[in-house]
Design goal:
Two copies of one chain form a homodimer. By secondary structure, chain A is an all-alpha fold. Chain A has helices spanning 3-14, 28-48, 54-61, 65-71, 75-97, 103-119, 122-129, 136-158, 171-183, 192-204. Chain A binds a DNA duplex through residues 26-30, 33, 51, 53-55, 58, 63-67, 69-70, 73-75.
DNA sequence: CCACATGTGGATATCAAATATCCGCTTACC
DNA sequence: GGTAAGCGGATATTTGATATCCACATGTGG
C-alpha cells in the first residue's frame, strides 16, 4: 500500500491520466467516502452481481446516492475500478504459477485458486461471462493472465503431460463451464465445481490411446 | 374478478394429453391458429430464448397479440406447451439408448444427440438452466430422462468403464457446462461444445491410478 | 471565528421494456 | 341471415433502474 499506488488508483477512477494532473486533492471526508464506496462496491457486486444498483452500493456504504454518482459517473465506472483490482490480483496468481516446476500441476493450482475466488464473487463471474464491462485496466490484466497461461501450457506440452491439441483458447471455455456449475442452484454449501474441475483436468491430460479432440 | 369464466374454456394447458373432456371444439380457423401459435412459439423461443415476448410470437405467426393471449393466458403457459413436447422427444432418445449394448457409449451418444438439440434451441437451454418454467408435463419428462440415465449409468458401472463415484446427479452439471460453452460468443459457426464433451467424457471414464473425485 | 467552496442526501423525474386488456370489427357455423 | 366465436393491435399498466437537482451540511484557509 504505497502512496504511489493510491494516487494512481484515484486517477484511474476519475478517468484522468497522470499527465492531465490538474486534479485538485479531494477534501478529507470526501476521500474517505471514496474509499468507502469502493469497498461497498466490492462487497455488493460480489454478493449480488453486477445488476446491483448504485443505490444499493450507496446504502451499503452508509451514504446517499448522490455521493456515489459524484465520485463515479455511472455503474460502469465503479465496476471498472472494482474489478480492475480484482483481475490484477488474479494476474498476480498466474504470474506466481508461471515458473513452478511441474507445469501442469501449477496450471491446475492456478485454476483452482482463481476459480475459488470467482466462486465467492458473483460480479466477477458475470464480468467474465459477458464482456460488458470494458476498460484499459481490465484489458491489461486479462492479457497478462493469457500470456502467463500460454507460457504454462507450452511448458506442460514440453513435459509431455498435456493432451494433444489443448491450447490457451481452451481456458476461457473451461472457466465458463466452472462458472456454470457455480451458478447451479446449490443444495448444500458444498463446492461441486471442484469435482468437475478434477474431471476436466483429467480429460486434459495426455493418455495412451486417447481420441483426437474435435477442433475448437 | 371472481369466477364468472367458463371452466372448459379456460383449460389453457391443452397440451396435456388426457384432460380435454369438457372442452367445446374450437372453431376450425381457431384451431388452425392454435397450431400456428405453437409452431411460432417453438421457432421464436428456439431462436431468441424465453425472453421473447408473446408479441414476437404473435407477429411471427402472422397473428395479432390478442389472439395469442386468447389461447394461452401468459408466456408460461405457451412455454410449458412448447417445451413439454420438446422434452418428451429427448426422453424418447434416452429411452432408445437404454438397452443398447455398450452402456457408456450409449450414454455418450445420447448426450451428444440431446445436446445437439439444445445447441439449436436457446429457449430449451434457458429452461434447463433456471427451472423457472414448471408444469406437470415437464416434470414427467424430466423424471423419465433421469430414470433412463440412471439405468444406463448402473450398467456402465457394471461393465467397469465408469469412473468411481460418478452418478446421475453429475449429468445436470455436465449439461450446464456444455450450455455454458454454447452461450460463449462464437467466433465461427463451429460447435466447440463437442470438444469439451469429449474432454469431460474422457474424465468420466475409469482409468488406472486416477484420483478420487471430490464429493458433489 | 467566519466566509465560502466543496461535498452530501435522497426524493423524484426520466426512460425503457414487457405484459395484458379491451372493444369494434370479421368470420365461421347452423 | 343471424349470432356466437374469434381476431387485431393500439394502448394502459406495471416495474425497475438510472441519474439529476438543489437545499442543506461540513471542512478549510484566512
Amino acid at each position: 500500500m504505497s502512496g504511489d499506488r493510491e494516487a494512481g488508483e484515484a486517477d484511474a477512477a476519475r478517468g484522468t491520466t497522470s499527465a492531465a494532473s490538474t486534479a485538485r486533492p479531494l477534501r478529507r471526508d470526501a476521500e474517505l467516502n471514496r474509499r468507502r464506496i469502493l469497498q461497498a462496491g466490492r462487497e455488493v457486486f460480489a454478493a449480488r452481481g453486477l445488476q446491483a444498483t448504485l443505490n444499493d452500493v450507496a446504502h451499503h456504504a452508509g451514504l446517499g446516492v448522490g455521493t456515489v454518482y459524484r465520485k463515479f459517473p455511472d455503474k460502469q465506472a465503479l465496476a471498472e475500478a472494482v474489478f480492475g483490482e480484482e483481475l490484477e490480483e488474479i494476474a498476480a496468481m498466474a504470474g506466481e504459477a508461471r515458473d513452478t516446476n511441474d507445469a501442469f500441476g501449477a496450471l491446475a493450482d492456478f485454476l483452482e485458486k482463481a476459480l475459488a475466488r470467482a466462486a465467492h464473487n458473483r460480479g466477477l463471474r458475470e464480468l467474465m461471462r459477458q464482456g460488458t464491462v470494458e476498460g484499459a485496466g481490465l484489458t491489461r490484466a486479462r492479457q497478462a493472465i493469457t500470456a502467463h497461461c500460454e507460457h504454462l501450457l507450452a511448458r506442460a506440452r514440453t513435459e509431455g503431460v498435456l493432451r494433444d491439441g489443448v491450447t490457451e483458447a481452451d481456458l476461457a471455455p473451461i472457466a465458463a463451464m466452472m462458472d456454470a456449475v457455480m451458478a447451479l442452484p446449490a443444495e448444500q454449501p458444498s463446492q461441486p465445481w471442484r469435482r468437475y474441475l478434477v474431471i476436466v483436468l483429467d480429460g486434459l491430460r495426455a493418455q495412451p490411446g486417447q481420441a483426437e479432440l474435435p477442433g475448437l
